[in-house]
Design a protein that fits this description.
Blueprint (H helix, E strand, L loop, with lengths): L2 H14 L8 E2 L6 H11 L3 H16 L21 E2 L13 H10 L1 H7 L3 E6 L2 E7 L1 H5 L3 E4 H7 L1 H7 L10 H9 L4 E5 L9 E6 L6 E2 L2 E6 L4 E9 L7 E3 L2 E6 L4 E10 L3 E11 L4 E10 L2 E4 L2 E4 L5 E10 L4 E10 L5 E10 L4 E10 L7 E10 L5 E10 L5 E10 L2 H8 L5 H12 L1 H4 L4 H16 L4
Parallel strand pairs: 3-7, 6-9, 7-10, 8-11, 9-12, 10-13, 11-14, 12-14, 13-15, 14-16, 14-17, 15-18, 16-19, 17-19, 18-20, 19-21, 20-22, 21-23, 22-24
Antiparallel strand pairs: 1-2, 3-4, 5-6
Helix pairs in contact: 2-3, 3-9, 10-11, 11-13
């Protein structure tokens, strides 16, 4: 068995399995006004949301495909199905979820995770949120955690106020695509002064071939409120590709604190093209903790607009690129107010011919006094055929700013491997220990259950990296 087959078989055992395709509702392949109208009709949306979709479709059709970043030439928009649902409704009891979908999430450990420590859980399968549940004590405090489709119907004033305001449809081609065909995703509203002390989680699963998944997540955190949101994503391994183009909008009002943690472990046939952005107002703090494993191509750059004095941003990301994979990731911060602080730490690992790229932007606006920013991007190469690139950009229009940037590229040395093997570790175990040490800044920020899972994923990857 080849190294790649070993890797794929181990991935499939945990994540890459699939259930037989079964759809309650499904649009025809390809993207058109008729498809967009059909999606809105299926969801029984108000006219104002349909108008947002149709305007976004026009923007999508007018924008050329990006020529920077990763290779997007393999994407054929007419090949994908833009809405597919295997469930008629969103259940609030696990017993009401269809059996085949329940089997999938049981194998992924979602109900178990809910029982252990989570404050709320959402599960999306293809285009439909199939399960959502929030703890009653949080509901009593006014916390809202539901799917975005339900929010359009139940909280229209809040959705109208914030939807597509942080990430406009015209921001980029894939943001326009998402705005036209979005389905599912999480909607979170935390009232002023409420601290959610335990994480809220959502899990996104693509099961069928040539499916596009376009969840839309909108999080509004009130003044002085706090929340930690975690999402995970997986898909089976197929010979044909799938498209994941999500949009995440986060609003942190005065004094709020938001942590958004992502662990994505897509299979190697998924284009993962995501726009994630936050607005941070006075004295608020936004933290992106972003882990990217798998996928054919990932292009994702979590960003924060520091719009109020004293606001802070912390972006911590890792990217792992294996055979035939390109991870183009990083972070962006815009200092638009005085006394704002930011930190970007990016770690990447490449092996088996994989390519990782750091792409970052720091902008300090004129008049934004006494801002500070630190950027650190480190790359680790596990062989002589892999690649790492760095594309930092800094635009500083204020003399009082303090900006620091450092970058490093290293290779695993034979002496390191030899040292660990002399202490009883196999070669793959030695590699895993080195990689885990390299990304320790990231893993220590995860809840224990997720840190353990990430360690298992890294060990699985290392088993496929040695003969």
């Amino acid at each position: 068995m080849t190294k790649l087959n070993v890797l794929n078989s181990k991935y499939d055992e945990k994540y890459g399995f699939s259930e037989p395709e079964r759809f309650v509702l499904k649009t025809e392949k390809g993207l058109s006004e008729e498809v967009v109208r059909k999606i809105s009709q299926i969801k029984k949306e108000p006219e104002w949301m349909l108008n947002i979709r149709l305007n976004a479709l026009k923007i999508f059709n007018s924008k050329p495909m990006p020529e920077w970043g990763g290779d997007l030439s393999g994407i054929d928009f007419d090949r994908y199905t833009y809405f597919a649902s295997s469930s008629e409704k969103t259940a609030d009891s696990w017993d009401d979820v269809p059996e085949d979908i329940k089997r999938t999430f049981d194998r992924l450990g979602i109900p178990e995770a809910e029982r252990k420590f989570l404050g709320g859980v959402g599960a999306q399968y293809e285009s439909q949120t199939v399960y959502h549940k929030l703890r009653e004590d949080l509901e009593r405090q006014g916390v809202v955690f539901t799917d975005t489709d339900s929010a359009v119907k139940n909280y229209p004033d809040i959705v109208k106020k914030y939807f597509s305001k942080v990430v406009p449809a015209g921001d980029n081609k894939f943001a326009a695509l998402n705005t036209a065909v979005w389905s599912g995703g999480s909607f979170i509203y935390i009232p002023d002064g409420v601290e959610v002390k335990i994480p809220l989680q959502a899990y996104f699963r693509i099961n069928a071939r040539n499916i596009g998944q376009f969840e839309r997540t909108l999080i509004i955190v009130g003044k002085g409120a706090k929340v930690h949101y975690i999402e995970g994503c997986t898909a089976p391994t197929y010979s044909t590709d799938s498209l994941h183009a999500a949009v995440v909008e986060v609003v942190a009002l005065e004094g709020a604190k938001v942590r958004y943690t992502t662990i994505q472990n897509w299979s190697s046939n998924v284009y993962n093209l995501v726009t994630k952005r936050a607005f941070a107002y006075k004295d608020s703090c936004v933290e992106w903790v972003d882990g990217n494993l798998g996928s054919k191509l990932t292009m994702k750059y979590p960003s924060v607009y520091l719009k109020g004095d004293g606001a802070r941003a912390d972006i911590l990301s890792i990217a792992y690129a294996g055979d035939s994979q390109h991870q183009d990731a990083g972070g962006k911060v815009f200092h638009l107010a005085s006394n704002t602080q930011s930190r970007i730490i990016s770690k990447s690992i490449s092996k088996g011919g994989g390519r990782s790229s750091y792409r970052g932007l720091v902008k300090v606006a004129q008049g934004a006094k006494d801002c500070t920013c630190t950027v650190q991007c480190d790359a680790l190469l596990l062989d002589d055929v892999s690649r790492s690139d760095t594309y930092p950009s800094m635009q500083v229009d204020e003399e009082s700013a303090t900006i620091a940037h450092e970058a490093s590229v290293g290779k695993v040395g034979d002496d390191q491997i030899f040292y660990l093997m002399q202490r009883g570790h196999s070669q793959s175990e030695a590699l895993a220990l080195i990689v885990l040490g390299f990304i320790s800044d990231f893993t220590k920020e995860l809840p224990m259950e997720y840190a353990v899972e990430l360690k298992k994923l890294i060990q699985l990857e290392m088993e496929g990296s040695v003969a």
